[in-house]
Design brief:
Helices cover 30% and strands 27% of the residues. It has 237 residues and is of the alpha/beta class.
Length: 237
């Protein structure tokens, strides 16, 4: 949907007072790739994502964002959280349209974008439904559609499937992989689920227990590696 950006993390360290959370993190998210951050709870994955997105300044180190951002991109770095955060008094289409309100886009162009992302995410048939009528998986899909409506150059996704039950999460992994590929944006995806990481990622950055350090960088050969390869990869991590 838009050109990707390159996020370069160099020597990042972060601490909350005396509690060291991240130490000496060096990694790069290349344009258009899906980089997954994985590690145990409390290892600093979400903190690192916030630093990469500019929401949090590191105690030490730097993050550099470079590359091409398309003219129709309204928000280069866009977050998707595990909390669906849908407004109950707005329909599916209304929730997606929310991020376009107040932008320079004319109303007709806004409506067209909403229609496009609803079609992309398979929500066109329920555009008039209310959040309370949707399953957890469908509500998260609305959250993805809302994020894509701004045509981001980079998607920052913080465990967007973790609030769902295991069966729904497994079903949505394939859908997410397809949606991310179609969007074509640089994507940094946080998870603690190895199967999810292998299914979605092109590269996997493995963080240690707190303080989080980069233990390994695994490259996924997409034509060869699939979900059935997740268990054997445990030994590599």
């Amino acid at each position: 949907m838009t050109d990707g950006v390159r996020l370069e993390v160099r020597g990042v360290h972060h601490a909350y007072r005396r509690l060291s959370v991240l130490e000496d993190i060096d990694l790069v998210a290349e344009p258009g790739e899906v980089l997954v951050l994985i590690g145990p709870s409390g290892c600093g994955k979400s903190t690192l994502l916030s630093i990469m997105g500019g929401m949090l300044a590191p105690t030490r180190g730097s993050v550099r964002c470079a590359g091409s951002v398309a003219d129709d991109c309204l928000n280069p770095l866009t977050y998707v959280f595990q909390d669906f955060a849908l407004l109950p008094w707005r329909t599916v289409a209304g929730n997606v349209a929310l991020v376009l309100e107040g932008t320079p886009l004319p109303r007709a162009a806004q409506a067209q974008r909403v229609a496009e992302v609803l079609a992309l995410t398979g929500l066109a048939d329920i555009a008039g439904a209310w959040p309370k009528q949707l399953s957890g998986g469908m509500r998260q899909r609305v959250g993805i559609a809302r994020a894509l409506a701004v045509r981001p150059a980079c998607l920052l996704m913080d465990e967007p499937l973790s609030a769902l039950d295991a069966q729904t999460r497994d079903l949505l992994q394939d859908e997410f992989a397809t949606l991310i590929a179609r969007a074509g944006t640089t994507t940094v995806y946080v998870t603690h689920n190895l199967r999810e990481a292998v299914r979605l990622g092109q590269r996997i950055a493995v963080l240690s227990r707190r303080p989080g350090r980069l233990r390994a960088m695994l490259r996924i050969d997409r034509p060869v590696v699939g979900r059935d390869m997740a268990e054997p990869m445990l030994s590599a991590i």
